[in-house]
Amino acid sequence: MSRMLAAYRRTRYEAAGAVARIGRRDAAVDAVLRRLGARRGTFVTAWNPWSRRMPAGWNARMGARLLAAAKRLPFAEGEGRARGWSERHLLLAADPRRAAVLARRFRQSAVVAVRSGAPARLVLLRPMLVPG
Question: What domain range is 41 assigned to?
C-alpha cells in the first residue's frame, strides 16, 4: 500500500462530534447523518490540493469557496487529522458521486464516503502510485 493510502487510512475524519475511520462503522456518524436528513454522506475538503501543503490563507480561501459551492446541501463542518496533518472539511449529505464533482473541482485525490450502518470507505478520484 502506498504511503498516501496509508495516510488516508490513519486519518480520523471528524464532523459534529462524530469520528469516521476508513473501514469502520460508527453509530455517532449514523446519528450525524440522521440530523442532516440523509442516509449517505461524503467528507470533502478544498485544502491542500493533490495532498500538497498550501499556506493557511490559501487553504482558508479554498475552504470558503467549497462552502459557497456546497451551500444547497446539508452539511456539518469538521476536520481530518493524522500525525501532524490536519485539514478542515465538510461532511456533505450527498451521494459520493455528487460530492466527487466538487472534490475534483478543488483538485482532491479522494473523498471519504459514509452510509448509515456501513463502514466508511475511501473513494479515490485519481490514481495513486502503489509500489509493485
Answer: 3-123
